[in-house]
Design a protein that fits this description.
There is one protein chain. This protein is of the alpha/beta class. It has 17 helices and 16 strands. It has helices at 2-10, 36-59, 71-77, 80-83, 115-124, 133-140, 145-154, 165-169, 172-178, 222-232, 249-255, 270-277, 299-305, 330-336, 339-343, 356-379, 389-398; strands at residues 21-26, 67-70, 85-86, 100-102, 107-110, 159-161, 184-187, 213-217, 236-241, 260-263, 282-285, 310-315, 383-388, 409-410, 418-423, 426-431. The strands form four sheets. The chain has a seven-stranded mixed β-sheet with strand order 7-13-12-11-8-9-10, sandwiched between helices. A three-stranded parallel β-sheet has the order 2-1-14. A three-stranded antiparallel β-sheet has the order 3-16-15. Helix 10 packs across helix 16 and helix 16 packs across helix 17 (389-398). The longest helix is centred in the N-terminal third of the chain and has 24 residues, at 36-59.
């Protein structure tokens, strides 16, 4: 399983453990020209193996539990935000102004799901705030794709010109991305080895992250997928959002399983945040690089105040290069890196069958946190781990290999990986977690809660 091995190697794992991973191959799943199924399989498999490794370490097991990666479960999980239903209502995936548009010389894709991004997009184009899609299309058709990209970026909005893989490879940001590892990790200090409370080897399920306190400062979608996975594995995850920036309700419901949710303003509630940090084990951030540094939330600053911390960061373009400070989302990274061109036709660009960069990077980020905790149990140090959607895209286009996984080949519908449960948000239909290892959890311990409904304190 070369791709599993590559992912596990990027995480710094013992190569001998890759043999613990097996696959269930499914027929009839959404296809793509690029090897997105292999990417998804490798990311989930690496995450499950990292969980099994930490569980074995804490429970004193003689060997790491076996990991089973089911293509059907993985495919469903990578569509979780689309398969979610709240009281029978299907989610809203993209707002009307989040789409491809023809320009004077090609194509551009915009992202305007959040009201402030929509406002900035229209302002950059010189359009009124109530402009229609037709008016927006007319204005974009008058300009070049690169002009739109730069104009909207300078206004704080999101628009990216369509590029081929060759065009992206010639971009300075692409060179910076390709030069970085898939998982960028560092030691931040010389804190002593972490003493993890042991787990009962007979406990069912085995929860490798039990007792870990995780501060979740992430936004849609990769970061929340990572913290949702840590919650599945037993971590106490507290998501913090600025009161003036509520999350989109459907996105919050999909990624809120297992977590609590609190509103906290870092400009006025610093004492409350510092009290949380004082007993946190992990901090996960998903804002553009540098955006939180003014609050003292850089990895180095956090580790100075809380030695032994794991700081995990995810961004769209990476914390380097000319695009290091830019905002971005999965759909836009696909457009810039040549994925949309590769998946499209001569008539129009396309997209992967799922937001695979977000989901894949999310599972790798969770895996990186789990591996950092395992390594801390041996030799200490605060740890920093960084991933970027653009680097995952580079792995997809230039690193992932066709991988006809061996194992059982079966055919089964997506309903096999769906469950229903009541919640304070209503009756939920949701996707079951794809991270699976012998003795591990099969579902989250709690459903999502309304956004910002919990106190900003540890349970």
């Amino acid at each position: 399983m070369t791709n599993h091995g590559d992912a596990w190697s990027a995480l710094g794992g013992d190569p001998a453990l890759v043999s613990r991973v097996s696959a269930v191959v499914r027929k009839g799943l959404p296809a793509a020209r690029l090897p997105v199924r292999e990417l998804a399989r490798a990311c989930v498999g690496a995450c499950a193996l990292a969980a099994a490794e930490l569980g074995a370490r804490r429970a004193g097991l003689p060997e790491v539990p076996e990991v089973r990666v089911d293509d059907g479960a993985v495919a469903a999980a990578f569509h979780s935000e689309r398969l979610l239903q709240v009281d029978g209502r299907a989610p809203v995936a993209f707002a009307p102004l989040s789409r491809f548009w023809r320009t004077a010389d090609g194509w551009v894709r915009t992202h305007a799901n959040y009201p402030h991004h929509r406002s900035r997009l229209l302002g950059a184009l010189g359009l009124p705030q109530d402009a229609s899609a037709e008016e927006t299309a007319g204005r974009l058709a008058e300009r070049s794709a690169l002009e739109v990209e730069e104009t909207v970026y300078r206004a704080g909005g999101l628009a990216v010109a369509l590029r081929t893989r060759k065009e992206w490879a010639a971009h300075e940001q692409a060179a910076e991305v390709a030069a970085r590892p898939l998982v960028d990790s560092e030691r931040l200090d010389t804190a002593p080895a972490r003493v993890l409370p042991p787990l009962d080897p007979a406990a069912a399920p085995l929860l490798p992250a039990a007792g870990l306190r995780v501060l979740d400062l992430t936004r849609v979608l990769a970061g929340p997928v990572a913290t949702r996975t840590l919650a599945l594995l037993g971590a106490d995850v507290l998501r913090l959002d600025a009161p003036q920036l509520p999350e989109l309700p459907d996105q919050h419901a999909d990624t809120g399983f297992g977590k609590r949710s609190a509103a906290l303003d870092l400009t006025t509630d610093r004492d409350a945040f510092e009290a949380l940090l004082a007993s946190a084990d992990v901090v996960v951030t998903g804002y553009r690089p540098g955006a939180l540094d003014r609050f003292g939330l850089s990895p180095q600053a956090l580790a100075e105040r809380r030695p032994g911390l794991v700081v995990a960061q995810v961004s769209a373009w990476g914390a380097y290069g000319p695009w290091g400070g830019r905002r971005g989302f999965d759909s836009l990274v696909q457009v810039a890196t040549g994925i949309a061109a590769a998946e499209g036709s001569a008539e129009q660009p396309g997209a992967l069958p799922a937001q695979a960069l977000d989901h894949g990077t999310g599972y790798l980020l969770a895996a990186a946190v789990l591996r950092a905790v395992t390594e801390q149990s041996y030799d200490g140090h605060s740890r920093g781990v960084r991933l970027a959607l653009a680097r995952t895209a580079h792995w997809l286009t230039d690193g992932i290999r066709p991988d006809p996984a061996t194992g059982d080949t079966v055919e089964e519908g997506p309903d096999a990986w769906l469950a229903e449960r009541d919640s304070r948000l209503g009756r939920l239909r949701h996707v079951l977690p794809p991270v699976s290892f012998a003795g591990g959890p099969a579902d989250w311990a709690r459903p999502p809660v309304p956004w910002g409904s919990d106190p900003a304190s540890w349970s």
